[in-house]
Every structure is written in C-alpha cells, then in structure tokens.
Specification:
Structural class: mainly beta
Distance between the termini: 22 Å
Helix content: under 10%
Low-confidence stretches: 1-10, 12-48
Oligomer: single chain
Shape: globular
Mean pLDDT: 75
Number of strands: 18
Largest sheet: 7 strands, antiparallel
Number of helices: 1
C-alpha cells in the first residue's frame, strides 16, 4: 500500500566540507540512483521490518523529449520555468509509477513529478514542491514526498527525493537493520533514491530507508537512523 507522508524532514549538520552534485542518470555510483520511503512516528522513524532484501537499485534515464512532456503534464504553463536535473526510470514499476523527474527553477524551488510508461505524462497533479530553505543554518538535507508501494514481480518499489546543501558530497541509503548503503542519484542540489525490494510476504511493511550524507573528505556528517529530525 502506498505511503505518502507529505512531510518535510530537515537533517542537521554536525560537520562541514565542500561538494558539488552530479548530473544525469547512472547506476550504482554517487551519480543518479535512488531509494526510500519515510514514515514519521513522533520524532522517530518506524522500526524496520526484517526479511526484506534490496533486489536492485538500477535506474535508466528518461529521454529529453519525454521529460519535457512529463514536466508539461505536471506543471502546466509553469513548465517552461523549470529545468530537469534528475530524470530516471525506477528498477521496478508499480501500478502508478515507474519513474520520476526532479526539476528546479531560477528561484531554486524544486519539484517532483512522478510518471508511468512512455506517454510523457505525470500523475503528480498538483506537483510536489519544496523550497531551497533548509530551515536555517545547520541543516544539510530535506526530504519530500517519499513512498513505498507494491510493484510487479512480487516486489516493492521504494522511492523518494529531496535536496541538499553544498556541504554534502555524497548521499547513500540503507534499509532497515542492514548496514549496506546504496548511492543516491545527485544533481544540482537534488537527490533521488529508488530501489526494488523483495520480502517474505508481499503485504508486509517494507524496511525503513535511512539517508546518510558524507562530506568531500568521506566523513559521514549525517545519519538519519541515529539523528532523525522531523519538521512538519
């Protein structure tokens, strides 16, 4: 079942560094790749569910022509004011979603437009926006509109997005109690994570994804599992 918290989470900084995002779609490196859903439970995130495995984090790029149509479908007449920074197909498709486009305008306002199939349309109407504010000094990351939903092949799609400050050089995602971290897609201050998950029971709660941020020196400067900070 789809989980849409419609919440923002600000990650606080504990160290500083310099960095830059990486553009376009790729697989498996600190370039475009993606994954996660976020569930609030007070100031903590929900407990992970045991038994799930990450089947794939492989993504594929969405062509420029389709991206333009997706943004037009998602944003209407405002589409010309935005340019896409990440546009990828997820490793597995749900009934409604198999990809996502993250775009930004000159005011550094980000938008997330989900899509399905190759018709160049988006079901994200109205679209999900997030401003580049990060609630003042000391914050590194904001998340928005993340979800987990049953997908084809008896799997679950986990997908989410957000943006980050220049202090962050790399973002990775871990799932539940598994310490393995998978690189997120990063470009122009935005990031996307997506993964195909498999588990013992299709209707079981999927494991909670946790965001990890690293500076240019390779130091972990944020761990969502140990430092969850929620702001509605």
């Amino acid at each position: 079942m789809r989980t849409r918290p419609f919440m923002l989470i600000a990650a606080t900084a504990t160290a500083i560094a310099t960095a830059a995002g990486v553009a376009s779609a790729a697989t498996g490196t600190p370039q475009p790749t993606a994954t996660a859903h976020v569930k609030p439970s007070g100031n903590r995130l929900t407990s992970p569910q045991a038994g799930f495995t990450v089947t794939s984090t492989r993504t594929s790029p969405i062509g420029a022509g389709a991206v333009a149509k997706i943004l037009a479908s998602c944003l209407g007449p405002d589409a010309s004011n935005f340019h896409a920074v990440i546009a990828v197909r997820a490793p597995v498709a749900t009934q409604d979603t198999d990809g996502v486009v993250i775009a930004v305008n000159s005011a550094r306002q980000y938008v997330q437009c989900e899509t399905k199939g190759h018709k160049g349309t988006s079901m994200s109407v109205p679209p999900t926006f997030i401003n580049d504010r990060l609630w003042g000094t000391g914050h590194l990351i904001e998340f928005f509109d993340s979800f987990s939903e049953p997908a084809n092949g008896e799997q679950t799609l986990s997908l989410g997005a957000g943006h980050y400050t220049p202090d962050v050089a790399k973002i990775t995602i871990s799932y539940g109690d598994n310490p393995t971290q998978y690189p997120a897609l990063m470009a122009d201050g935005a990031f996307v994570y997506t993964a195909a998950l498999s588990g013992p029971e299709r209707n079981s709660p999927s494991p909670t994804p946790y965001v990890h941020a690293y500076n240019a020196a390779g130091q972990e400067i944020y761990n969502q599992q140990t430092e969850p900070t929620t702001k509605q």
